[in-house]
Write a structure and sequence with these properties.
238 residues; alpha/beta; Purple Acid Phosphatase, chain A, domain 2; five-stranded mixed β-sheet; 27% strand; globular
Length: 238
């Protein structure tokens, strides 16, 4: 049986930066949700960076009809998310990380809201990777470097530590992330990393400047069947 989810990330609701570029983040978000409903999507994984704290209540209200999983981004805080989420909440480390399983796959959801990956999460991930099932990881920040200005300016602070832990696994791993606001797929050893553009504004994958694209936005549909993972990038025009 095929499992299908929508992967949405980097909505940046009610933040000043999109407004300065003439972008209505809420309008884009509503367009994405309408597209999901037209496609009869039921499950959403959100990749982080909801937006300003004031937007969180509205954000979660818009997703009440979907089955939701979430990985915090660097614009999200434990205190604010705790008002709306309980799954995976670690009160001691003030992080959200957890796993889910179905018949064929194990899904890991990590927290990089601090801009780093904690040692607690790395050790937990190493234990979770010991499984007979195929492994999929969701995380806000990319782990494999991507030649781009976004990667130069805003990388995960200690990504080499997580990368080493993942590469030490004997399993093929698929990792879905956001943060860089562009589409990219690359493979490094046993890791396939797939980056999804923002529902608010994409950024060009170039070096030298962070160049915002204002006339489109998007998300990804991911399908899991018994043998393989496939995905389709959905881009919408303003």
């Amino acid at each position: 049986m095929t499992k299908k989810i929508a992967y949405l990330t980097d909505s940046h609701l009610d933040e000043q930066f999109p407004k300065d570029h003439g972008i209505d983040a809420r309008e884009n978000w509503n367009r994405v949700l309408q597209d999901l409903k037209e496609r009869n999507m039921e499950e959403v994984v959100f990749g982080g960076d909801i937006g300003s704290p004031e937007s969180n209540e509205w954000f979660f209200s818009t997703l009440k009809d979907f089955q939701l999983s979430l990985t915090p981004g660097n614009h999200d805080t434990f205190d604010e998310l705790s008002k709306h989420l309980s799954t995976g909440a670690n009160q001691h480390t003030r992080e959200f990380y957890y796993s889910k399983e179905d018949a064929n796959y194990k899904y890991l959801y990590l927290d990089t809201s601090s801009g780093r990956i904690s040692q607690n999460q790395i050790e937990w991930t190493e234990r979770e990777l010991v499984s007979d099932k195929k492994i999929v990881l969701f995380i806000h920040h990319p782990v494999i470097p991507v030649p781009s200005e976004m990667d130069l300016q805003y990388p995960l602070g200690n990504r080499e530590n997580l990368s080493e832990a993942l590469k030490n696994s004997d399993k093929a791993l698929t990792l879905f992330c956001g943060h860089y606001h562009f589409d990219d797929t690359r493979i490094e050893e046993n890791i396939t990393q797939i980056i999804t553009p923002s529902t608010c504004f994409p950024v060009e994958k170039i070096i030298g400047e962070v160049k915002v694209i204002t006339d489109e936005f998007g998300y990804r549909i991911i399908e899991f069947d018994q043998e393989k993972i496939s995905s389709e990038l959905i881009m919408l025009k303003r």
